[in-house]
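Researcher: Batch entry, complex prediction.
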Amino acid sequence: MLGYAARRLIMLLPVCLGVLVLTFFLLQLIPGDPAVALSGPNAPPEVVEELRVQMGLDKSLPVQFGLYLLRVVRGDLGVSILSRLSVSSEIHRVFGATMELTIASMAWSVPLAVLAGIVSAVTRGSLIDKGMMALALMGVSLPLFWVGLMLIWLLGFQLNWLPISGRGATWTLDGLRHLTLPALTLGANLVGRFSRVTRATVLEVLRQDYIRTARAKGVAERVVLYRHALRNAALPIVTLIGLQFGWLLGGAVVTETVFSWPGMGRHVIKAILAKDYPMAQGIILVMAMLFVLINLGVDLLYAALDPRVKYT
Amino acid sequence: MYGAWKRTPRPVLFLVVTLTLALLLSACGTKTPEPTEPEGSTPPPAATGPQKGGTLVLAKDTEIDTYDPQKTGSIPVASVAQLIGDGLVALEYDLKTIVPALAKEWTVTPDGLTYTFKLREDVLFHSGRKFTSADVLYTFNRLLDPKTASTHAGRLGKVDKMEAPDETTFVLKLQVPSSELLVQLANPFMVILDREAVEKYGDKYGSQYLAGTGPFMFVEWVPNSHMKFKRFDSYTWGPEFLKNKGPAYVDEIIYRVVPERQTLMMELESGEIHSLHGLYPAYVEQLKQNDKVQLIPSEPYLHMEYMGMKVTRPILQDVKVREAINYAINKDEMIDVHLKGLGKPAYSIVNPAASGYWQGSEGAWPKYDAAKAKSLLDEAGWKVGSDGIRVKDGQRMELVYIAYSGREDLATLLQAQLKAVGIDVKVEQMDATAFWPRTREENYDLYIIDYSYPTALDLIGLYFPSTQRPAPNRMGWNDSRTDELINAARVATTAAAKQAALDEIQQIVAKNFVWVPMWHREQYIAASTAMKDFTPHNFYNMHWFKLTDVWLDTTN
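Model: Structure tokens for the complex:
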């Protein structure tokens, strides 16, 4: 298994290179000029030209990319061509904000969703099942910005219980209060997704022969459910959680925007729109690496969950 | 493994309990419920005078790339520059009167070429170092250095040389006179920088640090989140039109970025944010209902929204066509839809309240008259084709209109109004970051943009000289007489000569229909009623100037 993990980690290198090549050249396809963006609409041509030189945009694309690659190989992600802030320190900052939000949303939504999915599956067809699945459907289909704005309106604006937007310091009561609404919003969507998959998977497993055999043996229903059904149902759920986790790292843009949360999603979108290529590439690179690592983690977890899965 | 699964419901329970607790805790932590007033009791007395202390929270909806005032023209940077620093001179709220700031007095030689500024002796930088003429010299040398790539370099005029003969004297010698040098020096971006801080931070000055002689000191900038400033306690040199010359009343200022407009409005209405930059017309009515928010009209608001027409393009080369388009635009309809009625149609290229306005403007620009537009197009040889679009020599009357996103209503109206007279408008809509570089190209016809300016010459000198092509002279207007007159207005040493030149330029532009002046916006600045003694400053639409007068009413 260690050998497998090591091989997968080595595979990270070509993945990173691919990501860098792709993002660099894709960024060139976006219209816009960072020199104009920085100097403003009314800047005289000589100012724009000087800035292009300072940003290194006067060099040919392969040269720009080569220089960038050389720096990255040395472990230097460079500086933003607009703000001149260090890309790695900016990533460090926004990564913290994003992880905080992702983990907080997962922390309440995953257990709740798994529980709801199991209850739904076990009580299939009952009012409880229908009610929970209706809620799950709402969670999945209501747009995040709408849910976010409604939560802000109710809990922040009308009742004044929680701050409307922004981020507080981590590990403080203020930080927790700022975190609650965005984590609720993002988590509501996740509960919907996870509980539906859990329900479907558990139902599928409950129809299997080994469950019938266990019941025929006279095994208690609780044991049938937890020992036999859930463990077999775990694989697809874990896969989905892993994928969602990766997706959240970059895909929480809407939630970040509604709640003025200074996370990676907003940061990368701004960098892409402004064609701030060192910043955009740095963040996308980190996101891609995390995605690969999370997938590796999920794969390794398979082996732990399912004795049939073996990596050599 | 089995055990782990068996325990699943417990963490759920734990989480539910913790989250509920967190909610409850937070509810306790915020506002105590308003006490019900016993009968006959009197409400607590409202604060009568300025109170010291508190955190003033300001907000805007987009982040800026750098706050180095010499390296950007972004409007929110203007107010930050004026919180952190001071200029040599300042412009009063009327946008006409120049008053001393870091320079306590100045003289100009009769030829208008040499300006001698006497500087204040009691001014300190945030570091505690004394401000001297060497800092002025350093600031302006940096501004003029091509490496700085500053868009503001031209504000100093054509500099011959600059000198600092002693600590409190700064001399600026020009090659040709500059009739608006003082207004340009009062520009919010022309603050004096702390040489030591700029040199220490290099190209990271503006993102990692900011320093100057202003009433507030830089604490931190967290991009996409907020900026934080704290009061500079030694500040006592605010310009004379401020009631409080310093130090400021509020302890600190937090300038937040709230990208979602609805969230921003809820923050404002709930009092979490005291004031915001750029209030969207759609929210004005809603805010009028809220007695915790004051809407302060921006007056004078020297702001111009216009539609530029590229005079070099095949169809728009003909002045008759440009005149017809001026008649075809129904500005009232656009103001109703796009600005929710908050504006007045413009019939001049400069606001009548601005110095340098040509009194003859009003009668010179067409008022909406679709019939007249049609007959002018007929006269120009454009005949209505089978599909309702005009044709001339086999060419369809098609114009390309470029726009930045968020103004779809305007594009739709423009399309409809010009279609009504037989012109087909192709709309190209894009993100602002793509829009501005696109305006530097040649292959489009129409665009609508706006500009905040202090004087007629500032606006005209930006948009109409032939040397300003391809941008900001996006119309491609190339007229030697206009160039001559702009130059004459710039070097004029008498007010009358300057006005005569400005009048003639405005006549030329009107006669040639280079623009369609669109409207003068009626703008409001929103502020919480807890934010007392706040007077917005409209120079460059910056809103917040120094803020030494502002105090927070905690009884509010």
